[in-house]
Amino acid sequence: MAAPLPSPLRFESQRSLIHRLVLSTLTGRPVHISKIRTSSPTNPGLATHEVSFLRLLEAVTNGSTIEISYTGTTLLYRPGLIVGSIAGSGASGGVIRHELPPECTRGVSYFLIPLCLLAPFSKSPVNVIFTGPGVITSATPTGDISVDSVRTAVLPLFGQFGISNNIELRILRRSCTGPEGKGGAGEVQLVFGHQVRLPKTIHFMNPGRIKRVRGVAYCTGISASNNARMIEAARGVLNSFINDEYIFSDVSSAPLLPTTDGSSTKIGVGFGLSLIAESSTSVIYSADVTSPPSGGRPPEDIGQQCAHQLLEVISLGGCASPLGAPVMLTLMAMGSEDVGRLQISKEIVGTEEIIGLGRDLRYFGASGWGIRDGSNDGDVIVSVVGRGVGNVGRKIA
Known about the structure:
4-stranded mixed beta sheet
């Protein structure tokens, strides 16, 4: 007789929807999410990017079931086994091609970061190409970071947990935010070939001192002089603090989209800047600014704003930036049944995102966090006991 299906955990509203789906997939607990944008008179229910992420989850897992109500305001998700890019299970030739619709207003990093959290626990390597008219590789007005920041500020965090081999993020075609903040027709490939049974337990309590600044200035469909102006403005701010800095300039043509009359039109035109600062103990802080879809901002403003934003993130202190803290805390909770420690700024721990993450981890069966004062004023040390879930696919294999 088959074992009865576990009852789903119940949540309300679309807040933290993607991370709850990730935790559901990692722990194997089904979730029931209701009241998704029920107060919206024009666009109730799941948004386009959320439906697209559900399709991506279905492609990288085997045995998942997704039930969406007629109005789209209720979702029932029963996770399957994370299999990665196995041929015949959503992949063709070992590669999953995931197409984003033109109505998508979120950057491709909205899909990349959750996928990177799932990839180490996959049964086989993950190889996904994001394509279609909705792919935006730059930062977006909705708060998503650029692909450059994912590559330089998020992927290195996995090395702290012993996950560092055969990981690559390629920008095959750049694009900025298109008209009305919608897609830019870029193309990105994520190759994540390092699967582990359990992430290592970390003890990261020394932020160190900033030793270098790196960055990428990019522009699509416009003059390369915009990159030089952004770099000069950013250096004008950073030179007072550090000498070791290098900002790479990347110039590319704008993607072309076919129109109804048979011609092609440029889309995703714009420019932006991504900066990271690395400390002597491998702590990474990042900042990301891009030109608005409507234009009207000179490159000098973008460069200065990005540099000031980076200095503000550095001033928070701790061993994890606002971008990296959710990723590191999630991996610590999924690791072996040992106590890991991470020093974080009080301002980051007190944000709604981190508090909500701690509550969600408790709902999914993880241990509560222990918090005590850190060695620096304004920092706390968060102690996390791993759940020992690890890679179920590796355990079965």
